[in-house]
Amino acid sequence: MASPRRPREDEESRDPRASALVSVIEPTVTAHGLHLEEVDLASGPTTTLRVVVDYAAGTEQVDLDTVAGLSEALSAVLDGADVLTDVASYDLEVSTPGATRPLTEPRHFARNVGRLLEIEREEGAPVVARLKEVADDGVVVAEQRPAPKKGMPVKYGDPVEIAFDAILGARVQVEFSHKE
């Protein structure tokens, strides 16, 4: 089940209506073959309902046609539901988490097998490593070694296991080209 977006450090709390919206939104998201990542309701000059979705498994990326179809379906569901009655109008934004979102759940790691990650660990310096596999209790990565000379191919160390409890933070590193 999705949860409302976690508040940033500079925020006191999130809008409690976002939690109530999950039960209205989630069935439609699931019917489109997607997983509901988070729901955020931001008030300001205009109210914005942000819905973040992804596939539950695999490494395929959610395409724009899927996001557009879901957005249209959610709009119809929300118009027919008795929610946000205290808001005159709102903007609905449906998106995917983005390439640089923090990886916080084993499912997030599994969706990024083969990609380059920056991993902060409890002990030791952060590592940049290629994600090889995901197990129930951690990940297997091959640490990237600096090229000995400019223009030479990057090398990778032997695969090592890192337990999920030893990972403080992890993000995908955007690559413009990758050959293995």
TrEMBL record:
> Which GO BP terms apply?
ribosomal small subunit assembly; translation
The record ties this protein, via SUPFAM superfamilies, to:
YhbC-like, N-terminal domain
**Subcellular compartments:** Cytoplasm
For this UniProt record, the keywords arranged alphabetically read as follows:
Cytoplasm, Ribosome biogenesis
- Which HAMAP family does the annotation name? RimP (MF_01077)
Origin organism is Nesterenkonia xinjiangensis
Entry keyword Cytoplasm: yes
Major site of localization recorded for this protein? cytoplasm
Name of the protein in question: Ribosome maturation factor RimP
Pfam families xref list: DUF150_C, RimP_N
Question: Gene3D superfamilies given for it?
Answer: RimP-like superfamily, N-terminal (3.30.300.70)
